[in-house]
Design a protein that fits this description.
elongated, single chain
């Protein structure tokens, strides 16, 4: 499915807002690289739709401030899966 840049940026921004999604989650849904998502949302959207940009910016800042928590949780789960504590 081909998008024009404006439509793609607005659609990704709407997805991030609706789902409080991270850039990685959005990249998986839209089958694009994290770099493309980030560039579209942080650079292009600013000129395409400023109010939408402001909304997405808040979510991205929140996600950035919480990423150390998500990373720690992922490490904890990985450690638990790699060790069998049922014995």
């Amino acid at each position: 499915m081909l998008y024009d840049t404006r439509e793609r940026c607005e659609e990704m921004a709407s997805y991030i807002i609706e789902h409080q999604a991270t850039v990685r989650q959005c990249a998986a849904v839209f089958a694009l690289s994290k770099s493309t998502i980030h560039k579209d949302i942080t650079n292009r959207l600013y000129y395409i739709n400023r109010p939408l940009y402001e909304q997405v910016k808040e979510i991205l800042e929140k996600n950035k401030s919480e990423r150390h928590i998500r990373g720690g949780e992922a490490t904890r789960l990985k450690y638990l899966r790699s060790h069998d504590y049922t014995t």
